[in-house]
Amino acid sequence: MIHVIAIITAKPGKRAEILKNFKDNVPAVHAEKGCIEYGATVDVEGGPFAKFGPDTFVVVEKWETMEDLKAHGASEHMKAYGAKNKDLVANRAVHVLSPA
């Protein structure tokens, strides 16, 4: 299994717009071969925990194989999603991990 943690930081005030685009794309991703989990997360309100901040969200993904992840990245709906958000994203860091 492959785990992916993608940290997406929007340009100031643009996180909600990217998250709407993300949510619109989720059904297509869930239908992909090998997709186990794919969802966006944001900071929990309150508490003494470290925060990513109001412009950042984290995508948590699980894929059956690296080939499935590569096919996901090359899919037409992900290309369209990237094009739709290219002017809204300030920074993106994608961490691809395997179980320890």
Give the termini separation: 11 Å
Structural class: alpha+beta
Largest sheet: spatial strand order:
2-3-1-4
CATH topology: Alpha-Beta Plaits
The poorly predicted ranges are none
Given the C-alpha coordinates, what overall shape results? globular
Helix content class: 25-40%
User: If you average the pLDDT, what whole number results?
Assistant: 97
From the alpha-carbon coordinates, what is the Rg to the nearest angstrom? 14 Å
Question: How many strands, what sense, and barrel or not for the largest sheet?
Answer: 4 strands, antiparallel
* Count of the separate structural domains: 1
* Total beta strands: 4
Order of helices and strands: EHEEHHE
Can you tell me about this structure?
This protein is of the alpha+beta class. It has a single domain (2-43, 52-97), classed as 2-Layer Sandwich (Alpha-Beta Plaits), CATH 3.30.70.100. It has helices at residues 15-30, 66-74, 76-85, and strands spanning 2-10, 35-41, 56-63, 89-97. It has a four-stranded antiparallel beta sheet with strand order 2-3-1-4. The mean pLDDT is 97.
Brief characterization of the structure:
By secondary structure, the protein is of the alpha+beta class.
